[in-house]
Amino acid sequence: MSENPVDPAAREPEATAETPVKPVMDEERNFPRGLAIRLFAYLVAGHVLAGFLYLLFEAGAQGR
Predict the structure, then answer these.
(1) pLDDT tens digits for 36-56?
(2) Are 54 and 48 in contact, with CB atoms under 8 Å apart?
(3) CA–CA distance, 46 with 5 (Å, rounded to integer)
(4) pTM of the predicted model, to two decimals?
(5) How far is CA 2 from CA 6, 9, 11, 12, in A?
């Protein structure tokens, strides 16, 4: 006997011509808002850090 018996009632129904198949995730329409905010924050923070480092190197090159 098999360790994992398959229950025929537990299987997913098969797609037929009457039932349209929906995609699992439509990534173009459902872009997570939290991810977009985090991406924007990281881009801003990264540019601020890069600008600060640029100023440090400019100040160091001038001998201040």
Answers:
(1) 999 999 999 999 999 999 999
(2) no
(3) 53
(4) 0.49
(5) 9, 17, 17, 21
